Amino acid sequence: MFASQVKNKKIAIIESNAKIGQKIKISGGAKCNITNENVSFKNYLGDKEFVKNSLDFFSNKDLLNFLNKNGVYPKVNPKIVKGTYFCNSSQDVIDMFTKLTSHTKKFLNTKVIDVKYDKGFLVNTSKGLIKAKNLVVASGGLSYVSVGASPIAYEIAKEFGHEVTPTKPALVGFTVQKEQFWFKKLSGISCEVDIKLDEKKFNGKLLFAHKGCSGPAVLNASLYWQKGKITIDFMPKKKLEPLLKGNKNISTALPLPKRFMQEFLDSIELKDKPVSKLSSEEKDKLKTIKNYEFSPAGTFGYTKAEVTSGGIDISSIDKNSFESKHQEKLYFLGECLEPTGELGGYNFQLYFSQAYLCANNFK
Ligand SMILES: Cc1cc2nc3c(=O)[nH]c(=O)nc-3n(C[C@H](O)[C@H](O)[C@H](O)COP(=O)(O)OP(=O)(O)OC[C@H]3O[C@@H](n4cnc5c(N)ncnc54)[C@H](O)[C@@H]3O)c2cc1C
């Protein structure tokens, strides 16, 4: 996005992959979930003012106008997360940016190794030295090494005196402790849940997986999870009490997959029996279906994480120009910076907003 907006300078794009935009390519199941109807600074982990400033300058409507003007027409598809805009194909976005950056020189299959400064930037790459007056670092986070992720942004930032806050895999599944090993037996089954942690609550699908659990609600929870307990309501649209009348067995009376019910009841050591025969103590046990607390063991890690949370401390980055406050003419954009968005097109929206704002203030 940045390179597409700066036409009055000689620009070189350095990319370790053979093609640009490979994260875009695999995003949103190859349909790039590019923005959301309901974008707000509240959908991001990180400095609210820093995020809001970019979103105010280049909003979701601005991004959609920009895309439409350039022949890309995303449509709302709320199947996974409310308000999400998906493209017809991710390739449309890559083709658009390829066209819009035809004025740039592209160094592909070229890996940046390190950067020094001596009256200009000396970018040491796998294909030799590249000199530049200005340097914009937008090399992303640590997720998905298979499509080119590397820690180079953090290394360059540290070289020029920036702090990097601890990074962690985010928008990723949770692994589970022994007490939740029953999740693994349900691999492949999904159900709608509410997940609560601290002040946040996410509604959406939870997918039981071989390693633990995944799915949109879990991915969102992982962004805010530090360590410690999360609470799951496995029946967010129903109250329990009215379902406990009649002679049906628990596993039939509750509107949840039978296999799930069997494993859940085993895990709370409750026999499947007619709901009318439940003692008040047994009813209390069953109430955990709306209030199931557990501490994830960890996450599936950077190989499966859609994003990396944490990153370059934004207090030493100008919120309008994205220039480093330590080094003139050095800029940082995108996922390598601290703020990270929830699932649903929030990340592309913020990073395109940042790049657009940066380009508009570029001297
Ligand atoms: C599977 C998956 C699906 C996703 N789906 C969505 C979605 O639908 N919607 C959404 O909003 N977000 C989605 N995301 C997140 C989104 O893709 C990222 O947040 C976003 O691409 C970050 O943009 P960026 O420009 O900062 O970095 P990137 O898009 O990661 O681009 C950085 C580029 O720098 C290159 N690079 C890195 N190190 C070097 C080096 N040393 N030398 C040279 N080049 C280097 C990389 O190859 C890469 O091409 C998804 C992520 C994944 C992994």
Total beta strands: 21
Biggest β-sheet: strands ordered side by side in the sheet:
17-16-13-14-15-12-18
Tell me the major beta sheet: 7 strands, antiparallel
Total DSSP helices: 12
Can you characterise this structure?
The chain is of the alpha+beta class and 363 residues long. Helix content is 27%, strand content 21%. The protein is built from twelve helices and 21 strands. The strands form seven sheets. It has a seven-stranded antiparallel β-sheet with strand order 17-16-13-14-15-12-18. Strands 2-5-4 form a three-stranded antiparallel β-sheet. Strands 7-8-9 form a three-stranded antiparallel β-sheet. Helix 3 (48-57) packs across helix 12. The longest helix is centred in the last third of the chain and has 15 residues, at 346-360. The radius of gyration is 24 Å and the shape is elongated. The two termini are 17 Å apart. The structure holds flavin-adenine dinucleotide. Flavin-adenine dinucleotide binds at residues 14-17, 22-23, 26-28, 32-33, 111-112, 138-140, 143-144, 148-150, 152, 306-307, 334-335, 345-348, 351.
